Amino acid sequence: MSVHTEFRNRMYYNQYMRFTEKILVALLSFSLSAGCATQMEKSVKDGIYSGASQGYGGTVEVNITIADQKITAVNVSAPYESQIVASSAVKLVPEAIVSSQSTVIDASSGATITSDAICAAVEDALQKADADMDQWKDGEPVSIRNPKKDITTDVVVVGGGTAGLSAALRLRQMGIDTTVIEKDDACGGVMKDLVSAVQIVSSRTKAEKETSETENPGNSEEDHEQSSREETEPAGTLEDDLAPYFVKESGMLEVFMEQLDGTMIWQEDDLGIPFEDELLETDPYHEAVVARYDTSANTVGELLGKEAEVSGARLLYSTAVISVEENSDGTVVHAKSADGTLYTVTCTYAIIATGTWDDSEYITINSKLNEDDAHKISQQNGYEYVNGNSILMATGYQPDDHTVIDLFDHLDGLLKYGGVIANGDGERFVDETADRQTVSNAVISQQQDCYLVLSRKGYETFRSRLLKMELDGETKDLISSDEGKDIFFITSKGQINDVVPVGRVIQEYEQSLSQLSLNDGYEDAFGRNSFKGNLSLENGIVLIRLSVFSTGNTGGLSVDNSFQVIRADGAVSEHVFAAGSVCGNVLKEQDAPGLRTAWAFVSGKTVADEIGSVLAEDQLNKLLEKETEK
Question: What is the distance between the alpha carbons of residues 453 and 405, in angstroms, rounded to a whole number?
C-alpha cells in the first residue's frame, strides 16, 4: 500500500469516527431531553401537601413533599392499621412512589388494603397540588414483593400468652410438631410483666376437704357432732362460688372444675411454676383457694417464655396473622413478620389464643398489640362472635395521656415505705396486701379519686423502677423530672388543693403501727397485719392518683365444651379451637381473684389434650389401614 493510499484511508476513518460521535451525542441529547420532557409533563405545584384515605382499620394520612415538580418524600401516619402486618407497606410503598414518580403500585405485601390506602392518600394530596392525575397514574405498575416462606406443622397456636404457651408446651410434651405465632418480640403476654399475680389453685375448698376427711368419723362425741353439723349445714363449694362468673349455657364451669387440680399439678411438676405457700382468703370464696405466684426469680410469663424456647416449638416472633383458612384436610394460616416475610403455615389444627380486642374509653395495658385479630378471624370464616365489655382495673398510674402502669405490680415492695391507699377524704378502705382484683374493686366502689400514699423515699424507689421499664423517651423524661401527671408532692401542708387531708391518713397509719407493735398478730379493720416504714409530713409525702384501665375484653369466639370454635350457623369447626380469654362465651364481665389466670392455664392444657387425643387416634387409624392393606 502506498503512502498516499494509507493517508487517504486514515482521513476517511477519522471523518467516519467524527460523524459517528456526532450521531451518538445527538441521540443521547434527544434521550435526555425526552426524559426531561416526560418529567416536566407531570405538572404539579411544589410544596408540602396532605392527603387521606380509608385503610383497613381506620384513616391513613400522608404528607408529601414536592420539589422541582417531583415527589421527594412521602410520610405516612397509619395508627389504626395492624402495626406488624402494615409495617412493610408503610415503609416500602412510599419508597416505590418516590423512585417511580407514580402512584401505580402493585403491592403484594400482605397488607394490600393499607398499600392501596397509602397510594390513594398520595393521590388525594397530589390533587391539592393541582396535579394532572392521568400523568401520575400512567405507566406499568411498580411491583413490591415480600420474601415468602412455607411451613408445614401439626398445630399452629396463634398467640404466645399464658393460654397459648400452655397449649404449645403441652403439645410438645406429647411430641406434636407445634408452631407459635406471636406479635410481640417475646412470648409470655401480659404475664411476663406482672410481678404480682394470683391463681385459683384448688378445685375444692378447705371446708370440702375437711368434710371428705370426716366421711368415716371416729367414735368420739366431738367427731359425731362435727359430722352431724356438716350434714345439716353443707359447706359452700368452689363451684358454687364461681357459678356467678361463668356463662351457664357454655357448660365450661364443669370442665374447669374437672381439669383444675390436674392442671395445677402439671404447672408445678412439669412447668416448674412456683407458688407461695400461703393460701389467700378473699371474696367471693368461702375458704382460701387462691395462691400468689412466687416471682422472686422470674415472672410467670418469663418462665413460660423460657420453657417455650427449649421446648422444640417453632416460635415466630413479631409476626401477625393475616388470615386463617379452613379446608377439608386442615387449616392454612397466613401471617406476616415485622421484616416483611410472608408465611404460609399448613397445619391440621389451629388454636386461637389471641386474647380479645378492647375499644373502650379507657387506656389499655399492652395496647400496641391489642388488635382485633379474633374478630377478623371470625369474619373471615363465619364464626360466631360474642361482643363483650371491658375488663377494668383501678390500680393504674398514668404519667401521661397514652401510658398506664399497673401500680399493683410494685405494691408489695412499696408497702415498707408507707404504701397505703386512701380516698379523697383521707380514709383507708381496703387491705393493701389483698389481691389485685379485691383492691381494684374496692377502689372502684369508692366512686371518687383514690390515691396511693408513699413516703418520699418510697416514691424514689418506685421512680427508679419505672425508669428501668420499656417506656418511650418522653414518658421517661416526665417521670425522671417528677413532672408526670396524677402525682402530687407534699412537704408541710396537709392537703392537696384542700381535697385530700393526708394528715388523717398519717394518723391512721401511725395508729396501726402502734397497735402492731403492742399486739402480736394484730389486724386492722381491713385485715392488714403488716405495717412498715414511716409516713410523715416532715420527710415528705407523695400521692399517686389511681387510674382505671382496661386489661382486655370479655367478648370473643364462641366455643363448645371441647374448645372447638362454633360457626354462626351453629355447626362446630373441625380444625379450629380456642383457648384463654378469646373464648367469648365462657366468662362473664365480673371477675374473681385468680380466675382468669387459672382459666388460661386450664383451657390451654385441656385444648392441647383434646387435640393430642384426636391426633393419636388419627395416627392409630392410619396404622390400622396400612396393616389392612398388607
Answer: 16
The SS3 assignment for 499 reads coil
Q: How confident is the model at residue 89 (pLDDT cuts 50, 70, 90)?
A: confident
Rounded Cα distance, 391 and 374, in Å? 17
Contact yes or no for 260/598 (Cβ under 8 A): yes
Question: What does the pLDDT average to over 554-563?
Answer: 90
Q: Which helix (H) or strand (E) holds 18?
A: helix 3-41
Element (H, E) at 70: strand 70-77
Q: Within 10 A of 220 (CB to CB), how many other CB atoms are there?
A: 9
Q: Angle CA(111)–CA(113)–CA(119) in degrees, nearest 5?
A: 105
Task: Report the range of poorest mean pLDDT among 99-108, 524-533, 586-595.
Answer: 524-533
Distance in angstroms (rounded) separating the CA atoms of residues 322 and 589: 29
Give me the half-sphere count of Cα atoms (radius 13 Å) on the Cβ side of residue 577.
Answer: 28
Q: pLDDT tens digits, residue range 128-182?
A: 999 988 888 877 888 887 889 999 999 999 999 999 999 999 999 999 999 999 9
What Rg, from alpha-carbon coordinates, does the chain have?
33
Task: Return contacts of 517-525, CB within 8 angstroms, 24+ apart.
Answer: 524/431
Q: What is the DSSP string of 238-282?
A: HHHHHGGGB-GGG-HHHHHHHHHHHHHHHIIIII---EEEEEEP-
**Count of CB atoms within 10 A of residue 40's CB?**
11
pLDDT tens profile 212-269: 444 444 444 444 444 443 444 445 689 999 999 999 999 999 999 999 999 999 999 9
Q: Outline where DSSP puts E strands in 312-355.
A: 314-316, 319-327, 330-337, 342-347, 349-352
Q: Do 164 and 186 form a contact (C-beta atoms < 8 A)?
A: no
Q: Reduced to 3 states, what is the DSSP secondary structure of residue 469?
A: coil
The C-alpha atoms of residue 342 and residue 147 are separated, in whole angstroms, by 6
pLDDT in tens, 31-57: 333 343 344 467 889 999 999 999 887
Collapse the DSSP code of 453 into the 3-class scheme (helix H, G, I; strand E, B; otherwise coil) and give the result. strand
Question: What's the grid cell of residue 192?
Answer: 411476663
- Asked if omega into 284 is within 30° of 0 (cis), the reply is yes
Cβ neighbours of residue 306 under 8 Å, at least 6 residues apart? 298
Cβ contact 348:155 at 8 Å: yes
Instruction: Yes or no: say if 502 and 543 are a contact pair by the CB < 8 Å rule.
Output: yes
Give dist(CA 433, CA 521) in Å, integer. 15
- Report the range of poorest mean pLDDT among 312-326, 331-345, 394-408: 394-408
Task: Check: CB of residue 180 under 8 Å from CB of residue 160.
Answer: yes
* pLDDT score recorded for residue 207: 41
- What proportion of the chain, given as a percentage, has pLDDT over 90? 38
Answer for the pair 109, 92: CB distance below 8 angstroms, yes or no: yes
Predicted TM-score (pTM) of this structure: 0.72
